[in-house]
Each structure stands twice: as C-alpha cells, then as structure tokens.
Design brief:
Elements lengths: L1 H10 L14 H12 L5 H12 L3 H18 L4 H10 L3 H9 L6 H12 L20 H11 L6 H10 L6 H16 L4 H4 L4 E3 L6 E3 H15 L7
Antiparallel strand pairs: 1-2
C-alpha cells in the first residue's frame, strides 16, 4: 500500500511522496539508518527523514524513532533492559501506553488476542475480533516485539524471538522481525550460522550477476561499519 502510493505520487511529480501510512514498514528504514548514524547527533533527524520519504505519517515516524532509539542503545553497548527503560521515559503519552501494554505477563499469543479484543470491542462479530492487533498497524506492531524483548530467554534468544514472531501467523511479521532481529542481534549476537547458510542467491545490482545473498549482506554491513566508526569493535 505505502509503496504503491509513493510510486503514484512520484509519477504525479509531487514533492512530498510519502504515503499517509501508519504501518510497521517504518522499522525497515529505522534499522538501516540507525546503524549508519548510531551515536551521531543528527541520527533521529536522519531516521525521521528516511521514514517520511516513504510514510508521511506521524504515527509511523513516532514508532520508527522509538525503534531507532532502542536499537541505538544496544548498538552502543547499553544493557537492553536499561535501554528500554530509558526510551520509555522519553516517550509521548500515547507511546507510553504502548510500553505499558508490552509489560503484560501474558504469553505473546494471549496478549495479542487481548489487544485485538480491546481494539475491536465494538465489533465482537468481526472475523478480526481476535486478530486485529496482529496486523501491520502501529502501535500494535510495536507492542508485540517490545513484549518479546522484555521476555527473552537466556539461551538462543535470537532463534526463540524470531520463531515466536513467525508463528503468530498474521500481520507484518517481516517488519516486526527486522526490528526484533536487529535489537536482539545487537544485544546478544548474530543469527545462527545454520540459518545464514540457508540464504539463497540474489542478483548483485552493480554486476547483474547472481551472488550469495549472505555475501551481499556482509558487504553492506562492512560499508555501514566503515561509515560509522562508533560500531567498530575496539
């Protein structure tokens, strides 16, 4: 939806081409730009600009920035729990409510059902009555991964978090996984090698040749680290 609107506005010659879209796609831009500018004074401005190019929506920007704040904290070596607490203190009243809901002791599946029922309380007969909070919309798509970040297991945190997100089976699991995976990897280490080894090939845009996807990702990661010296291991 957001991309189709963006392309339509570009074709029309509009200067502001971002869609009025409050879905979790904002995480995609937030993760990459945060890695490029973590620790920089203008990091939030860069993230905000990147999101608005594609999603010119205040809610998308707000939660994209919160995701960026959380990722920056762990990228720069802060404890995950302490980072969540710090970011929560700076959140708006509406976002603070999302943080509060993420503290639920319920299992993720049960929490999403509870949130869905709250949102759809006036439409109990709707087929989405138990599913709405699993959708792509924010803040629900922020509450779910934040709830997971608060309850990570001591072992195999990355695998457990990504799998739990996948089996929810609805909504923008891809965008949630990008945010969730980035924070968990920054805090506890990269995905397992067995997963990485299963990545297939992709076409290199610079050479138009098939190249192992993992190599393209590694090359991009190297460029990001070269750009941002704060991410280099001493």
């Amino acid at each position: 939806h957001a991309t189709l609107t963006f392309l339509d506005l570009v074709d029309k010659g509009e200067i502001e081409c971002g869609a009025d879209d409050k879905q979790a796609h904002s995480f995609l831009k937030a993760v990459v730009v945060t890695c490029l500018y973590a620790g920089a004074a203008d990091r939030r401005d860069k993230v905000r600009s990147a999101i608005r190019v594609h999603q010119n929506n205040d809610i998308a920007v707000e939660y994209g920035l919160l995701a960026s704040d959380l990722l920056e904290g762990v990228l720069l070596g802060q404890d995950l729990a302490a980072t969540i607490e710090t970011v929560e203190k700076s959140a708006s009243a509406a976002a603070a409510e999302a943080f509060e809901k993420s503290k639920s002791s319920a299992a993720l599946t049960d929490l999403l059902k509870q949130l869905s029922n709250q949102v759809m309380k006036d439409s109990p007969d709707s087929p989405f009555f138990d599913l709405r909070a699993r959708s792509c919309e924010l803040p629900g798509a922020f509450i779910a991964p934040l709830h997971q970040l608060r309850r990570l297991p001591a072992d195999d945190a990355y695998v457990a978090a990504i799998r739990e997100n996948i089996v929810q089976g609805a909504g923008d699991t891809c965008s949630r996984a990008i945010f969730l995976g980035a924070v968990v990897a920054a805090a506890f280490g990269p995905p397992p090698a067995a997963w990485v080894d299963k990545l297939t090939t992709a076409k290199d845009s610079t050479t138009n040749e098939a190249t192992p996807l993992v190599r393209l990702v590694d090359d991009l990661s190297t460029k990001i680290i070269d750009h941002n010296a704060r991410l280099r291991t001493p």
